Amino acid sequence: MTTPMTEPGLRLTVLVGESDSWHHRPVYTEIVHRAHAAGLSGASVFRGIEGFGAHSMIHTQRLLSLSEDLPVAVVIVDAEEAVRAFLPEIAELTDGCPVTLDACEIVRNPGIQGDQG
């Protein structure tokens, strides 16, 4: 078994509310489409089941709760230069939203190709 190749990368995570919108479109959708247009290697959206933000209001998916604004995380991983160059593209979408950058290692398996996002 061969050891997969790795390279340094940067993980961008943007935390938004499910009901946050930009020109009648969900913010998370707009971020993913802008990442695709920018040629980034991939973006994924994860819907949270419970959380709270700056306003300290807890949003939950539990049956007795009627929350329609669950937390959503948009995660993008690519080379550091590509992610940093993308930040200005989403600045207007992320005003007031938590945005984090984390150093990571990207594993490249030479035999695997295709859409892994």
Notes on the protein architecture:
The chain is an alpha+beta fold and 117 residues long. The protein is 19% helix and 39% strand. The protein has helices at residues 27-37, 80-90; strands spanning 5-17, 21-22, 25-26, 43-47, 50-52, 58-60, 71-78, 99-108. The protein has a 4-stranded antiparallel sheet, with helices on one face. A hairpin with a 2-residue loop joins strand 2 and strand 3. The mean pLDDT is 86.
Short description:
The chain is α+β, with helices and mostly antiparallel strands and 117 residues long.
Considering DSSP H and I runs of 4 or more, what fraction of the residues is helical? 10-25%
* Helical/strand content category: alpha+beta
Shape: globular
Give me the Rg, rounded: 16 Å
What is the tally of beta strands?
Answer: 8
Instruction: Tally the helices.
Output: 2
State which percent range the strand residues make up: 35-45%
The overall pLDDT average reads: 86
Biggest pleated-sheet summary: 4 strands, antiparallel
How far do the termini sit from each other?
25 Å
Looking across the biggest beta sheet, what order are the strands in?
Answer: 4-7-1-8
Order of helices and strands: EEEHEEEEHE
Low-confidence stretches: none
Please describe the structure with a list of short key phrases separated by commas or semicolons.
single chain; alpha+beta; 117 residues; two-stranded antiparallel sheet; 4-stranded antiparallel β-sheet; 39% strand; globular
